[in-house]
Amino acid sequence: MQHLFIILMALGLQLVIQAAVANEQAPKSLNESHALNASTVSEIKNIEGTTFTSNQRKDSVLNTDFGKNASGQPSSEVVFTLLGQDILRGSFERLYWTAGQAIAGLAMPTPILVAAGNKPGPTLCLTAAVHGDELNGVEAIRRVMFSLESDKLNGVVIGVPIVNMHGFRRTSRYLPDRRDLNRYFPGDPKGSSAGRIAHSFFNEVITHCDRLIDIHTGSFHRTNLTQLRGNLGKESVFQFSKMFHDVTVLDGAGAPGTLRRAAVDAGIPAVTLEAGEPLRLQLKEVIQSVNGIKAVMHHLGMIDQKPNRAPKQNVFYKSTWLRADQSGVFLTEAKLGQNVKKGDILGTVTDPITNRSSVIRSNVDGQIIGLALNQMVMPGFAAYHVGIATDQKKVAADKVADSVVAEALEPVAENMKEVAREAAQTAAKTSNDPATVGAAARKAVQNAARNASQLVDQPATEVNKNAAQRGGNRATTESIISERPNDELEEHPE
What we know:
Elements: H1 2-25, H2 30-48, E1 78-82, E2 85-88, E3 92-97, E4 110-116, E5 119-128, H3 136-145, E6 154-160, H4 165-169, H5 193-204, E7 211-216, E8 222-230, H6 235-242, E9 248-251, H7 259-265, E10 270-276, H8 283-299, E11 315-316, E12 319-323, E13 328-332, E14 339-340, E15 345-350, E16 357-361, E17 366-372, E18 375-377, E19 382-388, H9 392-430, H10 434-449, H11 452-456, H12 460-470, H13 477-480, H14 488-491
Parallel strand pairs: 5-6, 5-7, 7-10, 8-9, 9-11
Antiparallel strand pairs: 1-2, 3-4, 4-6, 8-10, 8-17, 12-19, 13-15, 13-18, 14-17, 15-16, 17-19
Helix pairs in contact: 3-8, 9-10
């Protein structure tokens, strides 16, 4: 009986001690709870590290362990402030961006990875999954970001593996309202949900970039050869595209609202890197993307690592889609990246009921840069995307000539508009006849045309000054040049 009493007393004492310890560790108030959460986050951050550098325990491919820099202490030099946080030299930060539209407590923050080297240099931005079903870019950015070392990096790399978190979580290309986020940049703070998301991301993240690589894949049961889309009429974009070495390039300004077009319009050289197909992780395409990005970083002086491949590129200024002429089962015989000649048979379409077949032939010489996966198709279905072989020197010269003509005619066009407006307004004061007003404007333009040669020779700065004084909007050279139609945008939106 005495032994039983001693045992019960010991158990009771143990329970009292445990309760006291639990009470001591529990937060006493909401503020204390917040403080405890903050300290936990701080501890996690300390474990992960606030700087990244070479490490003997580092994996041979990925730098997954971030310690202090070579001097043993993190730098205090601030590169810039991103999302409200100062980015220091030699630091690796994981920040979070949100458009602020979620219901309280149900926020869906987007991770932003920032690697800042010990030395100054450009800021390169990498974005992926603007369409939530495109996965290759997510892995490519992960590999790039976690292979960087602070003492071997000049400048800053901002990596956003998943821009469209809403679509990514639903394995959908689109936002929840079925809008394509890549049609709303640079966005509108007072517009639709997509416009507001685009505006927030563009202004809070993209405006910090010196250059931008936006990674995509083919869409809706199509795959793309690893390739660049860029406006080669812009010298800065043309030179940027050459840094990717052997990655195929397709010229094009990009559809209005795309991230890379909005970036270029904002003065940031940008390209779209297309690689593979959606809803899959394809190692070959991921490696090609990583190699292309590393080649760019080498040419920008951000890393010393030289590209392993020869700098040989196929550049296409035109492309076309080859289409099915009947319904049925589409089976391809040609492969992605294959060079084709006019008349080559690339695939067949067979009616599964009648067994009637037709072939799809190439109508141009070029290279297959995109194709549809084997599937059921309808008449008019775009099966092959072919980059058309052209004389690159001739096309490049034509683009330069177009740019020069547009620049030369710019002051003429501006002056003609102003003269025509003034003449039309004067005539409208004395006549309500549209024909009379039009005749007055036409005559004024004809008279102004006699002095057009003087306007062509007028310095651009003087044109700017005159346009500002008149309150007019001076058109840019690019806006005067009419965009060439390219049906690749119709069949493969970025």
